[in-house]
Amino acid sequence: MKQKNLYIFDISTQRQMQLLIKHFSSGLIRMSRKINYPSADRNKTPILEVLQKHIDHTVEGKVLEISSGTGQHLAHFAPNFPKLTFQPTEVETSLFDSIDAYADDVPTKNVKKALFVNVMEDFAKWGLAGDFDYVINVNMIHVTPFSCSIGLFKNVSEALKPKGLLFTYGAYANNGVLEPQSNRDFDRNIRLKDPNCGVRDIQDLVKVAETYGIKLVCIYDLPANNKCLVWEKLMENV
């Protein structure tokens, strides 16, 4: 019997991942269901350390992740909070298989199957109850139009319980200052690909968040010139 070729891809970029999905769906390659982003492996532990400062691991609760990507983050976070139930979501349905594969291997079995969520749609269309204790959003804000940031805060205000927390991670400017040069280069490259996207200023996000009864409470400087922002829902509705 003729041996089929086995292709190995570096999927460290979005374009390479798209090519991988294309070849996989055509049956040309055999691989694990899991997709791996090296950047997610690098930042998952620093983000976890922030979560551990703010999440009470001793009581039961619910966590919603918006824009779960490959599923690597929740698979890393969930075993550290066995009393919490994690709900991954993603707008790219091609990533569901990877998200679910990571969830299946979580030893604490507290990660649910991926659900489709578009932050531009009203929360009522998400099919979820507004009873989450925490929401996590990693590396979405700078690679989407600002309207998605507005949709994020609007819908999180519906998803979270009062006093619930939102964690966002990525590159940010603050008060008009974007440092260091590598972040300015990063921002320029994003905007060359899509002028509607780019690194956002924290103060612009604060204005949007406050419109929906959400307040910025902490800023953490993390490795690779990224930040983790912690937000709190202050009101039932606005």
TrEMBL record:
It comes from the Eukaryota. The lineage of its organism: Eukaryota, Metazoa, Ecdysozoa, Arthropoda, Hexapoda. Belongs to the UPF0585 family. This is Methyltransferase-like 26. SUPFAM superfamilies: S-adenosyl-L-methionine-dependent methyltransferases (SSF53335). It comes from Phaedon cochleariae.
